[in-house]
C-alpha cells in the first residue's frame, strides 16, 4: 500500500456502519488504501453500494469514521466530500439524458481550468467521446455513457475516484478501455476504488481485492488468487452454487 508524504494512508475507513431505518447494512467496515487501485467484491446484497453511498455522503453513517489524507470526511454533505478530494462514478451512471457530452463536461470545466483533468484531457483519454461530443446522453451507448460518467468525475481532479459497478452491462472492449484508464490514473498518482460484482473485471482493474460479506470486509486476496481458486469464489462470491 502506497502512503502519502506524511506516512499516513490516503484513505482510512475505521468501523464504518450505516443502514436504513432500523436495518443495519454496513457493520464495521475497516480498511486502508494508498495511491493504488483497490477492488471491493461481493455478492449482491452484501452492502457494496451502501458503502459507496456512505463514503461519498449520500447516506449518513451510524458509527465509525472515514479519513482522507488524515482529515475526517464522514457525514459531510456530498458536495463537501467531493471538494475534499473524492469523486464518484455511480452505478447506473446518472447522466442527464437531454444534455450533450460537451454540455456534461462544460458544467465542471471552470473548476477544472489549469488542472490536470480538463474536458480536452478527457477527450484524449476517451477519443470515442470526442467523436460523440455533440450527441445527447440518451443517444450514447452504454459504454459511451460509462466513459462520460468517468470523465465527469475526473474533472473534479480528485485524489480518489470511487467507481460502483463500472463494468455493468459493458462489452469486453469497453472494459478494456476502463482498465487502461484505471491504470493510467494510478500511474499519475490518483487512487481508484473499484466496487464490483464482476470478479474478472475487478481483478483486471485492481489486483488487491477486499471481499465484502454481510456489510463487513471479511477477507483480502489478490485478484489472481481469487480468479485461480474456485473454492474462494464459491465461499465468498457464490460462484458455482445454487
Automatic annotation (TrEMBL):
The keyword Transport applies. Keywords: Amino-acid transport, ATP-binding, Nucleotide-binding, Transport. PROSITE patterns: ABC_TRANSPORTER_1, ABC_TRANSPORTER_2. SUPFAM superfamilies: P-loop containing nucleoside triphosphate hydrolases. CDD domains: ABC_TM1139_LivF_branched. InterPro entries: AAA+_ATPase, ABC_transporter-like_ATP-bd, ABC_transporter-like_CS, BCAA_Transport_ATP-bd_LivF, P-loop_NTPase. It comes from the Bacteria. SMART domains: AAA. Residues 11-239 form the ABC transporter domain. GO terms for molecular function: ATP binding. PANTHER family: HIGH-AFFINITY BRANCHED-CHAIN AMINO ACID TRANSPORT ATP-BINDING PROTEIN LIVF. Belongs to the ABC transporter superfamily. This is ABC transporter ATP-binding protein. It comes from Promicromonospora aerolata.
Amino acid at each position: 500500500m502506497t502512503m502519502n508524504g506524511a506516512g499516513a494512508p490516503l484513505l482510512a475507513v475505521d468501523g464504518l456502519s450505516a443502514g436504513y431505518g432500523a436495518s443495519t447494512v454496513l457493520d464495521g467496515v475497516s480498511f486502508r488504501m494508498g495511491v493504488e487501485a483497490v477492488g471491493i467484491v461481493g455478492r449482491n446484497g452484501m452492502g457494496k453500494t451502501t458503502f459507496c453511498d456512505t463514503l461519498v455522503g449520500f447516506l449518513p453513517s451510524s458509527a465509525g469514521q472515514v479519513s482522507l489524507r488524515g482529515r475526517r470526511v464522514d457525514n459531510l454533505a456530498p458536495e463537501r466530500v467531493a471538494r475534499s478530494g473524492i469523486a464518484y462514478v455511480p452505478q447506473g451512471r446518472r447522466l442527464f439524458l437531454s444534455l450533450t457530452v460537451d454540455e456534461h463536461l462544460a458544467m465542471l470545466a471552470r473548476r477544472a481550468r489549469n488542472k490536470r483533468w480538463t474536458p480536452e484531457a478527457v477527450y484524449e483519454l476517451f477519443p470515442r467521446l470526442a467523436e460523440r461530443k455533440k450527441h445527447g446522453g440518451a443517444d450514447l451507448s452504454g459504454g459511451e455513457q460509462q466513459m462520460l460518467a468517468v470523465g465527469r468525475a475526473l474533472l473534479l481532479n480528485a485524489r480518489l475516484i470511487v467507481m460502483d459497478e463500472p463494468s455493468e452491462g459493458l462489452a469486453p472492449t469497453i472494459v478494456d478501455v476502463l482498465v487502461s484508464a484505471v491504470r493510467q490514473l494510478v500511474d499519475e498518482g490518483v487512487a481508484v476504488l473499484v466496487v464490483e460484482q464482476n470478479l474478472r473485471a475487478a481483478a483486471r482493474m485492481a489486483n488487491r481485492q477486499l471481499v465484502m460479506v454481510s456489510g463487513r470486509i471479511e477477507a483480502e486476496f489478490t485478484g489472481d488468487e481469487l480468479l485461480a481458486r474456485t473454492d474462494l469464489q464459491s465461499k465468498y462470491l457464490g460462484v458455482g452454487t445454487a
